[in-house]
Design a protein that fits this description.
Bound molecules: zinc ion
Number of helices: 5
CATH superfamily of the largest domain: Fumarylacetoacetase-like, C-terminal domain
Strand content: 35-45%
CATH topology of the largest domain: Fumarylacetoacetate hydrolase, domain 2
Number of domains: 2
Mean pLDDT: 94
Structural class: mainly beta
Order of helices and strands: EEEHEEEHEEEEEEEHHEEEHEEEE
Radius of gyration: 18 Å
């Protein structure tokens, strides 16, 4: 199943994405147990006609109570910033207010001289998740996967002793365009980040230091994950700066491409 979140005048709704003919189309509305925003009226939803996914203006397909991010989950990325690979998962939070929609601008704040892209696989939580036992399967807790750009003010990350400011600016968490439960990160999903069409990051979830089951068990012992919460699973090597006018694209195999343009504040 693949779905997106669709914007209507008086709220939003989730809608199924399916291939009709040879095109990915947005079709029928879905009820998901993860909605936190104002849902569009039944009348508005009833009148929706199918439309092409590529042409639609979508919202981020998640409305999380929190965004849990993993630092240094690829060896080569830990190395490129001068860090050792961690011996246990390194987690931090991005505020839900940093969420950004596919196609919407990423704003570089004036107080940062270096804003980086970090293409990542996102995991959307399906149901309340707390103290997952070591032999309990984690797949039932996963609603699906999506693309995330964990935009980071790298200079502020280096000067601050923790990362709330560097990771937390408005627009610093583009997510989408869709959520899908079809890819299998344990089998391996390719992830590619491009800036202005040029490949800058290329990774595969097979190379995670901590696989998703380890991450979910670890996080669930610290904080309860709620339906709709988002986990950003870490970025591969190749992070680099963004300038005003850049087009940054995060492509996850089986999901699609999350594209955003960068603007200056
Ligand atoms: Zn990251």
């Amino acid at each position: 199943m693949k779905y997106c979140r669709y914007n209507l005048e008086n709220g939003s709704c989730y809608r199924l994405v399916e291939v009709l003919g040879e095109q990915e189309m947005i079709t029928r509305p879905l009820e998901l147990p993860v909605e936190r925003r104002r849902r569009a009226s039944q009348q508005d939803i009833k009148n929706l006609a199918p439309e092409a996914l590529g042409a639609a203006r979508l919202l981020a397909p998640v409305t999380p109570s929190k965004i849990v991010c993993i630092g240094r989950n690829y060896r080569e990325h830990a190395k490129e910033l001068g860090n050792e690979a961690p011996s246990e998962p390194l987690i931090f939070l991005k505020p839900p207010s940093s969420l950004n929609s596919p196609g919407a601008p990423i704003r570089r704040p004036k107080i940062s001289k270096r804003v980086d892209f970090e293409g990542e696989l996102g995991v959307v939580i399906a149901k309340t998740c707390s103290y997952v036992h070591h032999d309990e399967p984690v797949r039932p807790y996963i609603l699906g996967y999506t693309c995330v750009n964990d935009v980071t003010a790298r200079d502020l990350q280096q000067t601050d002793s923790q990362w709330t400011r560097a990771k937390g600016f408005d627009t610093f968490c583009p997510v989408g365009p869709v959520v899908s439960n079809e890819p299998d990160p344990w089998a391996g999903i390719e992830l590619t980040t491009r800036v202005n069409g040029e490949v800058r990051q290329h990774g595969n979830t097979r190379d995670f230091i901590f696989p998703i089951d380890v991450l979910i068990r670890y996080i669930s012992r610290i904080m309860t994950l709620n339906p709709g919460d988002l986990i950003a699973t870490g970025t591969p090597a190749g992070v680099g700066p963004l300038n005003a006018g850049d087009l940054v694209e995060v492509t996850v195999e089986g999901i699609g491409t999350l594209a955003n343009v960068v603007v200056d504040e």
